[in-house]
């Protein structure tokens, strides 16, 4: 595949990434609930503010625990290094197995590693509370290799804040297949998405690292085939919007893109627009907001818009 045109590299990937990564959720077969542990139930309610239902479901992870020594030592350790009560609660709620870890053996090495990266106190607690899997996955086999990759990718935008932002939003990527991360980064670079464009893409959409390699290749291929030449600003707000593949490229996407491009070139589009919003508009609303309201330029905008529609094999 030839490299993607420079103006569509990072930005176009953002257009579909959320829609590609989402999966339909299907109800799993009904299972007999595991018995709860009364000791842990009371502890979670009284010390971490869990609701009764939350406490019962999480306590089933500890059926054989007879004392509160382990959870108490974990909570004390996290408190001493600066985690807030709400951050500890979020960690335990999402990954209750954290409460069974050995603070000195399992937690301290990870905390030390992240502190060496420049994260500490409340900021560190914020990262872990948003992505508790960081506390449970292997330091040497998962965290260190994944973060070294991130540090290389974020080289041009490698502030501690950006690293933290990626870590908070990329649980599957960081705790997943390290070779997949490497392969995905390599594929993006082979398509010309490098340097600051690659770092910005990962900062904005870290879930791209967790895509199956075949998915990523299909995604980039489709974007390339669309052939858009766009200013990346259009796409930043688009990755959580309606599924774009439901729209016709010829009858809807390209005509509306051409109108937007003309408005931008004439300086008529003062407000940053989200392209997904333009696509989701009804025909009447789009015409009103992006054609008729521009007075002397309306005829030219209409000609471009209708011209592309008439050239389309599908309406």
TrEMBL record:
Pfam families: mTERF. It comes from the Eukaryota. The keyword Ion transport does not apply. Keywords: Transcription, Transcription regulation, Transcription termination, Transit peptide. One of its GO terms (biological process) is DNA-templated transcription termination. One of its GO terms (molecular function) is nucleic acid binding. Belongs to the mTERF family. This is Transcription termination factor, mitochondrial/chloroplastic.
